[in-house]
Amino acid sequence: MARPRVTFPNRILPYLLLAPQVAITLVFFYWPASQALYTSTLREDAFGLAQEFVGLDNFRRVLGDPNYINSLQVTGIFSVFTVAVALGLGLLFAVMAEKLVRGRGFVRTLMIWPYAVAPAIAGMLWLFMFNPAMGSFAYMARTAGYNWDPLLNGSQAMILVIAAAAWKQISYNFLFFVAGLQAIPKSLIEAAAIDGAGETKRFWTIIFPLLAPTTFFLLVVNTVYAFFDTFGIIHAVTGGGPGKATETLVYKVYNDGFVNLNFGQSAAQSVILMVIVIALTAIQFRYVERKVHYG
Amino acid sequence: MATLNLSAVRKLYPNGAEAVKGLTFDIADGQLCVLVGPSGCGKSTLLRMIAGLESVTEGEVRIDGARVNDIGPAERDIAMVFQNYALYPHMKVYDNMAYGLRNRGMGKGEIDTRVREAAARLELAHLLDRKPSELSGGQRQRVAMGRAIVRDPKVFLFDEPLSNLDAKLRGQMRVEIKNLQRSLGVTSVYVTHDQLEAMTLADVLVVMNAGEIEQIGAPLDVYEAPASTFVASFIGAPSMNLLPLASGAFAGVRGVPANAVTIGFRPEDAEVIVAAGASTSDLTLDAIVEAVEPVGAESFIYARAGGDRIILRVAGRTQAAPDDAWVIRVPAHKIHAFGTDGRRLQERM
């Protein structure tokens, strides 16, 4: 069936309408991306006076750096746990909120609030709560006999940034899961109940498979979030430390480029990061999406 | 195989709305009972209470003699066909039908036998590997039926199962449901707002209005002796002509009780006579023809008698044309009389 073709009376108008979006993409994506690509092939002397073209040498050095490999591992662990916790809790809260008879709208509103908090602020909130020197939760943990010190203990620092990063993303996931749950016809659940499926069974055999499109979408969005948008949280909470225990790829790009002023290697890292995220998204669409059933 | 008994079943929603106002009736083993009424009359609520999807505020629901008020839909041994079919969209037809059996821990071999048997009966055998989205409306309807019959339940519940089909398919599926129900002999409750479906399917017809039962009976008994003006106008298409008895205007018509305020007659029960001179014991009306609708086997004549609009049904073609002045005669024994409360005044005919 041929879809009716939209025709504009003016030949220039459609280009004008597209122009803002194209301009934004050019200025904020293609231009910096090409700059990064270009810078990644340059090396600057220690005084920033001269640049020379070194080809792929920056990439060779970055990939041979044990700190970079560490950062890859940190990012892997951080992303997997952040995404898993944010998706898992988002879904759990959505399912529980749907069961409420009273105050459902109120709970939903409250659940959405954390999303409005800026990453750095969210980081500070968690830092204040869990800072070993002044955090009230840190005090409680220590009183309970637990040796809580994320400033020295790398694993505890990791748990703290994962918690803060996941906490902020739960709202977003919650919202989409609530919408996804509401799109499932009630009669399907009733049919399954008549078919003898208990509540847990209904969830895993009917509701969860039907939420798959939502879950898949959120998986992609959350992965990108964990890779890029968590910079502010890490910067505020741990600054990548202790040591390099919470230095994710995006944080290392910042550290090497803007703190250590090694522009060439920092640019090479951001190019690699870009490739990783493109590859990850492609893999998700190629393999995970096959298992998704769109109603 | 089971009987279904409802006694004083009542549904009160938390907001104070009383959807079902204390209904009592029994359905014998193997019977197909149709609940019919306009939307909002409580028929679907009643069905959902039988299914266990809605709680029963008061009264008792018994399946095969056992009280089921407090047990869940899964343990009631019922199967339900939903208006939108409620097929699981991510499962193949086979799995849709097998789902309820698997949940009950039936063996693989037994499940396979049952699913294939049901599929063969419903001519679905070649569709078992398809997803519901790849089926036509009629096929989905069959799968929904299949999912109900593989379970071999005590009671079938149908919630307006044909309302999403086009008119031709609806007629066809109506016959199939009737045949299937008869051959399986499973006690069934069928909810519809379509009086034609109700008339053709029912062993027992329950006409409901505003949460109450207006009349229970065999379809033709209900048609021939409607218990109230509501039933008279709801059952039968076109519906019965109901005329208010303006103070003694029709007095003297034989068989019409003195306290009648409304009389009615079926469109097919009136005769058209050109000249006056009918027997005085029959009802005669002067009518002006307003419109004629020939539909082939019969014709509908829309006319005005005094201040009232009436519809007549005559076989084949009619000579009537708009603006003709005719005299309508209704034989005395075809006249239905209703009192001030809208209830029927005569004994059954």
Note down, in words, how this protein is organized:
- The complex is a heterodimer of chains A (295) and B (349).
- In chain A, 71% of the residues lie in helices and 2% in strands.
- Chain A has 295 residues and is mainly alpha-helical.
- Chain B is an alpha+beta fold and 349 residues long.
- Chain B has two domains: 221 residues, Rossmann fold (3-Layer(aba) Sandwich); 100 residues, Beta Barrel (OB fold (Dihydrolipoamide Acetyltransferase, E2P)).
- In chain B, the strands form four sheets. Chain B has a six-stranded mixed beta sheet with strand order 6-7-8-3-9-10, sandwiched between helices.
- In chain B, helix 2 crosses helix 3.
- Chain B is globular and about 75 Å long.
- The relative contact order of chain B is 0.12.
- Classes of the chains: A mainly alpha (295), B alpha+beta (349).
- At the A-B interface, helix 8 and helix 9 of A face strand 6 and helix 2 of B.
- Chain B: This is ABC transporter ATP-binding protein.
- Chain B: It comes from Agaricicola taiwanensis.
- Chain B: One of its GO terms (molecular function) is ATP binding.
- Chain B: Belongs to the ABC transporter superfamily.
Task: Sum up the structure in keywords.
heterodimer, A: 295 residues, mainly alpha, MetI-like fold, two-stranded antiparallel sheet, 71% helix, B: 349 residues, alpha+beta, Rossmann fold, OB fold (Dihydrolipoamide Acetyltransferase, E2P), 2 domains, six-stranded mixed β-sheet, five-stranded antiparallel β-sheet, 8 helices, globular
Kindly state the number of beta strands of chain A.
2
User: H/E element string of chain B?
Assistant: EEEHEEEHHHEHEHEEHHEEEEEEEE
Counting DSSP H or I runs of 4 or more residues, the number of helices of chain A is 13
Tell me the radius of gyration of chain A: 23 Å
Q: What general outline of chain A do the C-alpha atoms trace?
A: globular
> CATH topology of chain A, anyone?
MetI-like fold
Range of strand content of chain B: 25-35%
Keywords (chain A): Cell inner membrane, Cell membrane, Membrane, Transmembrane, Transmembrane helix, Transport
Protein name (chain A): sn-glycerol-3-phosphate transport system permease protein UgpA
Family (chain A): Belongs to the binding-protein-dependent transport system permease family.
Subunit structure (chain A): The complex is composed of two ATP-binding proteins (UgpC), two transmembrane proteins (UgpA and UgpE) and a solute-binding protein (UgpB).
